[in-house]
Amino acid sequence: MIGKTFANAALLAAVVLTATLASAQAMPAVLTIYADKPVSAVSPTLYGLMTEEINYSYDGGLYAEMVRNRTFHGSWDGIQSWYLVEDGNAAAKIAPDKQNGPSEALKNSMRLDVQKADPANQAGLLNVGYWGMALQPNTTYKGSFYAKAGSADIGPVTISLMGNDSGKVVATTAVSGVTTDWSQYNFTLTTGAIEPSAANHLVMTVGHPGTLWMDLVSLFPPTYHNRTNGNRIDLMQRLAAMHPAFLRFPGGNYLEGDYIPDRFEWKKTIGPLVDRPTHPSPWMYHSSDGMGLLEFLEWCEDLKMRPLLAVYAGYSLKGDHVNPGADLEPYIQDALDEIEYVTGGPETKWGAERVKDGHADPFKLTYVEIGNEDWFDKSGSYDERYAQFYKAIKTRYPSLQLIATAPLKNMKPDVLDEHFYVRATQNFHDANHYDKTDRNGPKIFVGEWATREGTPTPNMGAALGDAAWMTGLERNSDIVVMASYAPLFVNVNPGGMQWESDLIGYDTLHSYGSPSYWAQVMFASYLGDHTLKSEVQGAGEKFFYSISKSTAKKQLYLKLVNAESTPLPVEIDLPGATLASTAKLVSLSALDTQATNSINNPEFIVPVDSTISGVSSHFSRTLPAYSIQIIQIDEQ
Ligand code: AHR
Fold first, then answer.
1. Beta strands, E only, 193-241
2. Which of 5, 172, 297, 481 would you label with 33, given CA atoms 20 to 30 Å apart?
3. 26, 538 contact by CB (below 8 A)
4. How many degrees, rounded to 5, is the angle at CA 19 between CA 15 and CA 21?
5. In the predicted model, what is the mean pLDDT of the chain?
6. How far is CA 411 from CA 312, 369, 390, 434, in A?
7. Atom 8 of ligand 1, residue of closest alpha carbon
8. Does any ligand 1 atom lie closer than 6 A to the CB of residue 52?
9. How many CB atoms lie within 10 A of CB 198?
């Protein structure tokens, strides 16, 4: 009896619920858009990129170097990523040599002592790469190394790429003539008709007893725009699809370092690789500094982005700070030199240095950021440090816009950098964050933000939070001049991640965009130059939208976000507008907030393009549950 009553009550509840849902669906929201009533300008630089060396973003990521620990840094258990090779009855040993290196910057090297070897029984060393080495069929890889022999009769160095599983040589070559002085040697390795695979390693051996010192062993695949010392093609293509307007670099915490000597010292990251000493990074691995200041700038050039240069401002992560005043002067001079390296002509000291490094033309620079997250500086020195940098930089470069990384008590900065790492719910509640911001205050740069749900990369729930947040950024883009999601990259191999929820994931061979990545691509690809007056009635708490218009293209972009678990019917009114009767629809949706993409299922959630018909000054749409949709309509 009790069971039956319960069953009846449950049936009744279900009927009521169904009726409620049906009535909710029968009452569509009404979105009214006034196509001839502009509200505010949308910043042309709204969407950009923020990067730093975290999660193997550069080394083992974008920076295409295949040899890990190419300069033989030691750790407690030996030289990371390098191992001894003794083929057949060959006998040898390897050890770090701290007294012998090819340059002032690289004072140590790897010493190989071969007691017994012949051409059929070789000895040497191997490198395992960043979780392997990705090889493609019929492809040429360019390599180089520095070496010095104890005696010239050491003979040729054989260099091979070997399959981890097959033990077979995939590509091989030999370098002869190694002398008793340090020199650089170049080589190429070309694969045949192989299957693409990351399960490969690099082997360097000799077939004669003797001693050989080696350093800076490097191997590159073809790179984006064929740059020497360049970037991984697939990752650059993913970034290009985001249409980024700027690149904020080099951090983030990576700019500051844990301690002052560990900061990003830009002067040690330029010029030939052999002159770069490398440095420890705060994200628990050593940086090769192959991605140096000029490489950042060339990355900007390749993707037509403006550099947003962050300069070290006298505060490091574990709390050390430099006192404002005389102590800070050398750091300010360093920042001035850095700006000159980026923007100076050949007649300037540091501009000439850039020309010498291979880039004749100066780069255009608008924004310089003074430090990173200086609200952590408990000494309270940031106000004074910012003011001192401001005075010196503005005196030399009056047109540069200087970004503060913490609110200031004593002056108004040109721009204020604000960071938000939140859950989706917070973004749903805070999508109107900048609606009431004082327009007389500093411009805003949302230099780091993300909805952090999903690991290693964000899921659909996070993408919905992101999309809600971005509608608010677009609506307030008269004051929010720039915004960049962070972190951008994660190497998903074991041990690759230091920070969860990163926009783009990859291993050695493949990469994929998270649902949040696709939300970014969609939002940046369909953006007008101004927002339009609009209002909505009858939508629930989790409906968000942004309406912008491109004057040049005569196009309207309706961004509609339904973060509810049920579809949302919407009546769209455009009073007085004359529109094409068909429109482009781009849709990203999933059946659950936890749905996601991964390295093994990279395209589970991707935007789908289609055409919708029946568009007019009054038309209806039903937004699927958990969806982000963009409707691009041509005005006539
Ligand atoms: O994006 C990861 C880290 O978060 C950045 O390095 C730092 O600026 C912030 O705290």
1. 200-206, 210-220
2. 481
3. no
4. 115
5. 95
6. 20, 16, 10, 21
7. 252
8. yes
9. 17
pLDDT band at 76, cuts 50/70/90?
Answer: low
Of 458, 368, 384, nearest to 417 by C-alpha is 368
pLDDT in tens, 497-549: 999 999 999 999 999 999 999 999 999 999 999 999 999 999 999 999 999 99
Quickly list DSSP for 286-345. EE---S-HHHHHHHHHHTT-EEEEEE--SB-TTS-BPPTTGGGHHHHHHHHHHHHHHH--
Count, residues in the chain? 636
Q: How far apart are CA 409 and CA 551, in angstroms?
A: 40
Token pair recorded at residue 603 = 């395209």
pLDDT of residue 277 exceeding 50: yes
Q: Using one digit for the tens of pLDDT, what is the confidence trace for 455-501?
A: 999 999 999 999 999 999 999 999 999 999 999 999 999 999 999 99
Q: Establish whether residue 256 lines the binding site of ligand 1, counting it when its CB lies within 6 angstroms of any ligand atom.
A: no
Q: What pLDDT is recorded for position 75? A: 72
Spatial contact of 201 and 126, defined as CB atoms under 8 Å apart: yes
53 ligand 1 Cβ < 6 A: no
The structure tokens listed for 256 are 């500051």
Ligand 1 contact, 57 CB (< 6 A):
no
